[in-house]
Amino acid sequence: MLETIWFVLWGVLWAVYFMLDGFDLGLGILMPFLAANDDERRIIYNSMGPVWDGNQVWLVTAGGATFAAFPVTYAVMFSSLYTPLLLILFGLIIRGVSLEFRGKLDSPAWRGLWDAGMTVGSFVPALLFGVAFANIFQGIPIDGEGVFHGNLLTLLNPYGIAGGVLFVLLFLYHGALWLAVKSEGAIHFRAVAAAGRLWPAVLAIAVAFLVYSWFVTPLYRNFLARPALFVIPGVAVAALLLTRTFLLGGSLWKAWFASSLTILGVTLFGVTGLYPNLFPSKIDPAYSLTAFNSASSPLTLKIMLAVALVMVPVVILYQAWVYVTFRHKVSGKDLAYEEAY
Amino acid sequence: MDVLMLSRLQFAAATMFHFLFVPLTLGLSILVAVMETVYVRTGDEDYKRAAKFWGKLFLINFALGVVTGITLEFQFGTNWSEYSKYVGDIFGSLLAIEATVAFFLESIFLGVWIFGWNRVSPALHAASIWLVAIGSNISALWILIANGWMQHPVGYVIRNGRAELEDFVAVITNRFAVLEFMHTVAGAYILAGFFVMGVCAWHLLRGNETRFFKKSFSMAAAFALAFSLFEVVQGHMHGAEVAETQPTKLAAMESLWETTTYAPMYAFLIPDPANERNSVEIAPIPGMLSMLAFHTPSAEVKGLKAFPKDERPPVTLTFLSFRIMVGLGFLFVGVSLLAWLRRGTIESHPGLLRLLLFCIPLPYIALEAGWVVAEVGRQPWIVYGIMKTADAVSPLATGQVAVSLAAFIVLYTLLGLADFFLLVKYARKGPEPVARKR
Fold first, then answer.
1. How many Cβ atoms sit within 10 Å of the Cβ of residue A335?
2. Which CATH number goes with the domain that contains A65?
3. How many domains does chain A have?
4. What is the value of ipTM here, to two decimals?
């Protein structure tokens, strides 16, 4: 029971990370396509300025929860996904530093350098998180000792790439909606138009991914056993359809929330399908790491559950307060603010 | 080189680089919080300008500290998977608690502090930098409880082929961890004090904004002096705890080969590990080591030869790092005392100001040396007495780790240079001019 609760929490932590940092990463990739000049690029940076750092902590928490609750999975997952994980971390390092450093010098070359860092540092994690999770969904070639038999190219198989493209497109759409919410003027209209153009692609790849998963992964096994669970992918698709309605109706906040729900739904679809596996082996199911054979002791799981039940709601409260406090559109006044990015 | 050596180097590079930024974050956040609090309570605009000026340097430094910290959390999985499997039940939970209790607090309220000068009330704004300071210091506490457990494991039982948690309270009240935490944060506060004094010195030597920089200077001098004094006493207690719990580390710190009572301390010695002796030993103080370690001159101190060769840490590196740390620690007491005594007329002591400017790097060296003592001195153990580092490494290919280590070094060097460049630029620029009242 404790293991199952932690499995759910584990999935939720990753899903919340993708939901929150997803728009930062998406906007980082979109920036060269949406911003025409330095002021517009600054609008993009400042639209995520007060929140991106807190969003990123969900990744640290998801990683920490993996370590605390399922140490064997943590050990095998991150050592077998060594190269992609380090590329993700290098990307995030460059992304974070770009945000902080870019505005500190008024030189086009300096700013161009960090703008490039922002885009590359956002694209690589977005793509590789998708590749990694899709590969986990279909199973990883690990043996009984947890040793990975393959390399980065093993992971870049068609389904893995489909997962990567899905994540990138979801994040692009999510980022475009965030910018639409947080900006005004020309860049606002460009963001709305970009979201409108991205939507059919996101819908197509999301549906294709769900169908593709039927053929190459065992994810649907749990859903067929308990059909009520179909509500999860159902919500993901319905929320994605709703974003279109909200976008056309000009309800941008609602569109962004629906897009958040899409990302939560897509992640939880995969996680639910995985259960009880956390890191399935493609070589032999007996080698798979599950919520049961890789878990911490009951005492640790209990203590960590108490910590999570007390602290996570507190974190959500103060983080939500920050989102509300900084909900305004980024205007010329915000760009003139001396501490702005 | 094999995977083990490459992974050791990678972890050392990633950790030591990360720790170039952490101490200033820990100390400067407190100083900025104090400055802003003074501003909110007295309305003295100089303190608002001070909070903004030092806050800017804090942010440039923080940027690298936070992103390099993320890689550390994942390195236990990527490079030390056998370690993670064996002790994750205890160690992993401490890292997870750090993230939920401290890291969120620090990161989320930093956003409020940067972007909130005109959007939240002055009191709430000052509170947000306090929350950043508290968050980062609590973060250090949990990380050091985790490290303290590797140094001196308590509250566990070996069950199901791994170390499992038995007594959580014992783990979080581990005396070794508490001492290590105090030792590390006090070191961080000394570093921040010397950093602020050094930057002030640069401006005071040029006669820039003398009134403004003297205010910051006095605060930093008091901070540095208080914690330099504290560190001497605390460092002694920490050393006595090491003597109690990690006899091999103590012997390496002092390069003591033979087990002796009335163990002396030498003013100068050169270790000769190949021949299990010291090639030079000058000016012994009889019984001093026994006295410091066990509080009685007759106490027996175990020498390195009392332990099998494969359970001894690298002696020369541990010994030298320890001497450097302790020597610098005493220097900090003297220099900060002088600075504090002359704080009222500091602008007319150019010699002292120049000295303070050149002192900026010294606490960095002392803190990194301290970590070398703690981590190299613990070898060959990754968890003292229960797991060796050689048994902890991931089953990776040599090429993978060689490439990632090279990538770490290139990326971190470039980012470190950019950060240093910005720090120098903004430190020299000084505070924003006083806003004209209309």
1. 17
2. 1.20.1630.10
3. 1
4. 0.92
CB neighbourhood size of A149 (10 A):
13
Residue B37 CA to residue B34 CA, distance in Å, equals 5
Contacts of B119 in chain A (CB under 8 A): 325-326
User: Does residue A237 belong to any structural domain of this protein?
Assistant: yes
Within a domain: A341: no
Query: Contact at 8 Å (CB) between B401 and B75?
Result: no
The position carrying tokens 């996904």 is: A81
Indicate the residue type of B107. Answer: S
Taking CA atoms, what residue in B is nearest to A73?
B85
Position A132 in a domain = yes
How far does the CA of residue B310 sit from the closest CA of chain A (Å)? 27
For the full predicted model, state whether its pTM sits above 0.80: yes
Q: Six-digit token pair at B264? A: 């002396």
Q: Which of A208, A42, A63, A157 is nearest to B78 (CA)?
A: A63
Q: Which domain holds residue A111?
A: 2-336
CB contact under 8 A, A300 and B165: yes
CB distance from B154 to chain A under 8 Å? no
Contact yes or no for A72 and B88 at CB 8 A = yes
* Sign of the dihedral defined by the CA atoms of residues B148, B151, B154, B159, in that order: positive
Chain B residues with CB under 8 Å of A61 CB are: 96, 99-100, 103-104
Chain A to chain B, count of Cβ pairs less than 8 Å apart? 222
**Which pLDDT tens digit goes with each residue over B162-189?**
999 999 999 999 999 999 999 999 999 9
Interaxial angle between packed helices B3-42 and B45-78, expressed in degrees from 0 to 180 and rounded to the nearest 10: 160
- Is B437 contained in some domain? no
- Whether B139 has its CB under 8 Å from any CB of chain A: the answer is no
DSSP B18-46: HHHHHHHHHHHHHHHHHHHHHHHHH--HH
Q: In this structure, what token pair is assigned to residue A142?
A: 């690990």
Residue B401 domain boundaries: 3-425
Cβ-based neighbours of B358, under 8 Å, separated by 6 or more = none
Chain A residue with Cα closest to B89: A296
B416 at interface of A, judged by CB pairs closer than 8 A: no
Residue B433 contacts A where some CB pair is shorter than 8 Å:
no
SS3 of A124, please?
helix
B234 touches chain A (CB under 8 A): no
Cβ–Cβ < 8 Å for B289, B254: yes
Domain count, chain B: 1
Q: Looking at CA atoms only, how far is residue A69 from chain B in angstroms?
A: 7
Asked, for residue B90, whether it belongs to a domain, the answer is yes
What does the pLDDT profile of chain A (341 residues) look like in tens digits? 899 999 999 999 999 999 999 999 999 999 999 999 999 999 999 999 999 999 999 999 999 999 999 999 999 999 999 999 999 999 999 999 999 999 999 999 999 999 999 999 999 999 999 999 999 999 999 998 888 898 888 999 999 999 999 999 999 999 999 999 999 999 999 999 999 999 999 999 999 999 999 999 999 999 999 999 999 999 999 999 999 999 999 899 999 999 999 999 999 999 999 999 999 999 999 999 999 999 999 999 999 999 999 999 999 999 999 999 999 999 888 888 888 88
Interface of B with A in 97-136 (CB under 8 A): 97-101, 103-105, 107-112, 114-120
Indicate which of B89, B143, B159, B387 best probes the interface with A, i.e. most A CBs within 10 Å of its own CB: B89
- The verdict on residue B269 lying in a domain is yes
Closest residue on chain A to B18 (Cα): A93
Reported in sequence order, the residue ranges of B256-301 that DSSP labels E, i.e. its strands, are 265-272, 277-285
- What token pair was written down for B202? 């640069």
Question: Is residue A133 one of the residues assigned to a domain?
Answer: yes
What is the rounded distance in angstroms from the CA atom of residue A279 to the CA atom of residue A294? 10
In a domain, B435, yes or no: no
Identify the closest residue of chain B to A83 by CA–CA distance. B400
Determine the Cα–Cα distance for residues B168 and B262; give it in Å rounded to an integer: 39
Contacts of A340 in chain B (CB under 8 A): 115
